[in-house]
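From the shared-data thread, chain only:
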Amino acid sequence: PMIRPLLLLALVPGIASAQMPGEAVPEDAAVRAEAAMTEFAQTLRTTLTDTIARDGVVAAIAVCAKEAPAIAANVGQAHGVRIGRTSHRARNPANVPDHWQRSALERFSLSVAQGRRPETLNHRAVELGRAQFARGIPVEAACLACHGPKESLAEGVAEALAKQYPLDQATGFQ
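Structure, as tokens:
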């Protein structure tokens, strides 16, 4: 099966209205978005690994559901961006990709199919007065505890996912 990337994204509002789509993204917006995406990824990874080590994988599901949005909001506010995660198979209906995110996911998926690593993939654009940034997220071994094939999830994980995310589509990654 084809490995498909997840996206870590950042939107920078309020880019000068004279800027047209397709033009270069302002460097200050790129710096803020990159810093926010890096901080968010590191903070969430640390929070999840600490939770798994202390309380187990099932407890980490609640972290993703409740703490990840708060981490994203706090990091985004600190950097003046809106940040989040999405995938072609979303776990949370609130994270279903919109048009530009789907387009980035499709391009990223093609690149991964051609042998590129997800963490090397980036998207930058300006649309509707907002700078859009996306970065591929590699699926690491620890991610598979909740995002791997359903038949390989540890006891209690599939049940906890179904309870927290009844419309979950984010398993089956490899």
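The two ends are 8 Å apart (CA to CA).
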